Amino acid sequence: MSKKLWGGRFEKETDDLVEKFTASIDFDKRLYEQDIKGSMAHARMLARAGIIPKEEAAEIIKGLLEIKLEIERGEFPFTCELEDIHMHVESRLFEKIGPVAGKLHTARSRNDQVALDLHLYVKEKIAEVVGKIDELMKVLRKLAAENRDAVMPGYTHLQRAQPVTLSRHLKAYYYMLRRDKERFSKALKGADIMPLGACALAGTTLPIDREYTGELLGFSRIYENTIDAVSDRDFVIEFISCSAILMVHLSRMAEDLILWSTSEFDFIELDDAFATGSSIMPQKKNPDVLELIRGKAGRVFGNLMSVLTVMKGLPLSYNRDMQEDKEPLFDTADTVIGCLKVLPKLLSTMKIKKENMKKAVEESFSDATYYAEYLVKKGMPFRAAHEVVGKMVSYCIKKNKKLSDLSLREFKNFSKLFDEDVLDLSRYPEKVKNKKVL
Ligand code: ARG
């Protein structure tokens, strides 16, 4: 009857529709490396524990290595009849080495096998993401160092608020990314637990050595509870949550840069190689890369919601619903890594228009707080100083002047506390650069 690896108790072939509906091979084939690595470690453990002969373990391992090569060379036959990557590898092993292949699945279920593959995958992806965050931080640090002299308006409510340096603005993102890195490192702890040996959910009566398998695969811990081992997807959710928070940061950075590249702001110009054109308007230069980063944040948030929703009502332990964790997980990793790859280059090639930033500071009243703080230093309560400077701003608006245009006489009309040294404040861009808190 059925050629299925689980076909023993079945008297009918699986319906074609069911085969297609349940298959995950189209997307879980990318776990082949983790699956084969896990199987090789499992075979070694079985031999060491005396559960299978050493020569047979060696035969299994040799076959698995050949299968890995076949997949890498694109010579491996994938079919939805074999459901998933685990079944594919095992069936192919049978074709290669015969019935000995049947010993590989001793003391193992696809439930702990798929959990193991995912743990290995998430661990690798965390390392990759952290490496890419590092590269982005390096570019931000370099740009911040080069732009300590670039004074620009800092914004609240998207209204010019107080002058800051471009360096300080960029460093805000640097520190967000530093927290992201810490968050991913914490997530690594959740992924660094080895589930193999839990089998379907209840472990095995065979004398396996889980510590040894864990050691071979580089895990620092093993699950203490077999039901938890096959039911847990916290580490997937943690990876996607960290990614979602990271995407909030990348999206905000993208939004700032999109605004800055408009003619209204005109603080930066994206390099031609990192912008796109319009099919109808010949003059257009669009920040599509940045818009896509902002947009892709949405799909990562959606992925988080998907996995949370898949998991929330599941009775312990494994349920097939959990197969639905893979696409959101893979998509998250691809999306985040894609964004992290393109941003450093976009940032380091963009043109920064320091003069325009400076002009924007000068055209605004963003130096007003300095005048209020001046009066505070002369002994005036801050609320009173706020009121005085507010009146000065209103006066300047009527007279079409800047605060720094006022004469000492005009200053004194607002408060007797103003002295000769108030005129120094007109050189406030220098002060911004020298401000201690950066
Ligand atoms: N493809 C399945 C998944 O991704 C593998 C585990 C299947 N286990 C089972 N008992 N049917 O979750």
From TrEMBL:
<dbReference type="InterPro" id="IPR022761">
    <property type="entry name" value="Fumarate_lyase_N"/>
</dbReference>
<protein>
    <recommendedName>
        <fullName>Argininosuccinate lyase</fullName>
        <ecNumber>4.3.2.1</ecNumber>
    </recommendedName>
</protein>
<feature type="domain" description="Argininosuccinate lyase C-terminal">
    <location>
        <begin position="365"/>
        <end position="425"/>
    </location>
</feature>
<dbReference type="Pfam" id="PF14698">
    <property type="entry name" value="ASL_C2"/>
</dbReference>
<keyword id="KW-0028">Amino-acid biosynthesis</keyword>
<dbReference type="GO" id="GO:0004056">
    <property type="term" value="F:argininosuccinate lyase activity"/>
</dbReference>
<dbReference type="InterPro" id="IPR020557">
    <property type="entry name" value="Fumarate_lyase_CS"/>
</dbReference>
<dbReference type="InterPro" id="IPR029419">
    <property type="entry name" value="Arg_succ_lyase_C"/>
</dbReference>
<dbReference type="InterPro" id="IPR009049">
    <property type="entry name" value="Argininosuccinate_lyase"/>
</dbReference>
<keyword id="KW-0055">Arginine biosynthesis</keyword>
<comment type="similarity">
    <text>Belongs to the lyase 1 family. Argininosuccinate lyase subfamily.</text>
</comment>
<dbReference type="InterPro" id="IPR008948">
    <property type="entry name" value="L-Aspartase-like"/>
</dbReference>
<keyword id="KW-0963">Cytoplasm</keyword>
<dbReference type="GO" id="GO:0042450">
    <property type="term" value="P:L-arginine biosynthetic process via ornithine"/>
</dbReference>
<dbReference type="InterPro" id="IPR024083">
    <property type="entry name" value="Fumarase/histidase_N"/>
</dbReference>
<comment type="pathway">
    <text>Amino-acid biosynthesis; L-arginine biosynthesis; L-arginine from L-ornithine and carbamoyl phosphate: step 3/3.</text>
</comment>
<keyword id="KW-0456">Lyase</keyword>
<dbReference type="GO" id="GO:0005829">
    <property type="term" value="C:cytosol"/>
</dbReference>
<dbReference type="Pfam" id="PF00206">
    <property type="entry name" value="Lyase_1"/>
</dbReference>
<feature type="domain" description="Fumarate lyase N-terminal">
    <location>
        <begin position="8"/>
        <end position="302"/>
    </location>
</feature>
<dbReference type="InterPro" id="IPR000362">
    <property type="entry name" value="Fumarate_lyase_fam"/>
</dbReference>
